[in-house]
Amino acid sequence: MAGGLRYITYLSPAQTGSYLIVVTTATGWPADTARINVTATPAPVGAVALTPGSVSLALGDTVTLRATLTDASGAAVFGRSIDWSSSDGAVAQVLVTGFVRAIGPGTATITATSENHSGTAAVTVHQ
């Protein structure tokens, strides 16, 4: 007890939401209440990996690349936006879903970026 105040240690619930804390006395009568809101701070993206990491396609062929987002500990991260781009749209074009279409012969790098982290895949298009 310090200055007439009693301090308690409280472990918040694992789930987010609004909670009512009821502090009781030794006799069981409520002494005070407090409402708290528990929020979650999502772990930031630590790495982006694309699979397959490289692919060879004939003109007109398609493939869907998969981006896997992980945090600093390697745990999967979900629900984040991913920006897709191609280093050469005349060779391979990519949609927001990771769907890639072979347009012309050559090599292009497909990049997926989330929270300033990127992963790449090489796409080689042959005739």
H-E string: EEEEEEEEEEE
The overall pLDDT, averaged over residues, is: 89
What class do helices, strands and sheet pairing give? mainly beta
The coarse silhouette is rod-shaped
Distance between the termini: 80 Å
Percent of residues in β-strands: over 45%
Global Rg: 26 Å
Give me the number of helical elements: 0
What level of helicity do the residues show?
under 10%
Biggest sheet strand line-up? 4-11-10-7
Q: What's the number of extended β-strand segments?
A: 11
- Report on the biggest sheet: 4 strands, mixed
Low-pLDDT residue intervals, each spanning 5 or more residues: none
What does this structure look like?
The mean pLDDT is 89. The strands form 4 sheets. The chain has a 4-stranded mixed beta sheet with strand order 4-11-10-7, with no helix packed on it. It has a 3-stranded antiparallel beta sheet with strand order 5-9-8, with no helix packed on it. A hairpin with a 5-residue loop joins β1 (17-24) and β2 (30-38). The chain is 0% helix and 51% strand. The protein has 127 residues and is mainly beta. The protein has no helices and 11 strands. It has strands spanning 17-24, 30-38, 47-51, 54-58, 62-64, 66-70, 83-86, 92-94, 99-102, 106-114, 117-126.
